Amino acid sequence: MLVKRAEQAMVRAKSAALKSIGLTPSQYVALFELDQQSGITAATLARACLVTPQAMMILLKTMEQQGLITRSSHPRHPNVLELHMTEVGREALHTARERVDPIERRVYGAFSPKDLGTFREFLLRFIEAFGASDF
């Protein structure tokens, strides 16, 4: 329960920071991933964001309507759609990072570097206890 409470506290803080610029935490994560992997498919993005393909399709439809992303056919595989961030999406991501980074710095600042390393190790063990060691 403590892990869930910590996650909810972080999500609430990020949600409040992102709301003022019209983004949800899910949209922020999707934009962040698209910044890292431009041209990926919706299925790949869903896996990276840890959501179902169905949830990702709903999210992408909204993001496309907001002008944050575009979908285009793959040059060699016309049935495959690639996702790309628009200039509006890049600006939104930049502004979002300005809002989210201080929240993350505040959390990380509550721990020493050694504590953060130990915390990361504990979280990885927690994940591995469920057989999901590919994170």
Can you characterise this structure?
This protein is mainly alpha-helical and 135 residues long. 67% of the residues lie in helices and 7% in strands. The mean pLDDT is 91.
List the helices and strands and how they pair.
Elements: H1 2-19, H2 25-36, H3 42-49, H4 53-65, E1 69-73, E2 81-85, H5 87-109, H6 113-128
Antiparallel strand pairs: 1-2
Q: What are the main properties of this structure?
A:
135 residues, mainly alpha, Arc Repressor Mutant, subunit A, two-stranded antiparallel ribbon, 6 helices, 67% helix, globular
Shape summary: globular
- Poorly predicted runs: none
Helical residues, percent: 55-70%
Oligomer: single chain
Strand order of the largest sheet: 1-2
Separation of the first and last Cα atoms: 21 Å
**Which superfamily, in CATH terms, is the homologous superfamily of the domain at 23-102?**
Winged helix-like DNA-binding domain superfamily/Winged helix DNA-binding domain
* Strand residue percentage: 5-15%
Tell me what the CATH architecture of the domain at 23-102 is. Orthogonal Bundle
CATH fold group of the domain at 23-102: Arc Repressor Mutant, subunit A
The strand count comes to 2
Distinct helical segment count: 6
Rg over C-alpha atoms, rounded to the nearest angstrom: 17 Å
Short note summarizing the structure:
Strand 1 (69-73) and strand 2 (81-85) form a beta hairpin. By secondary structure, the chain is mainly alpha-helical. The chain is globular and about 50 Å long.
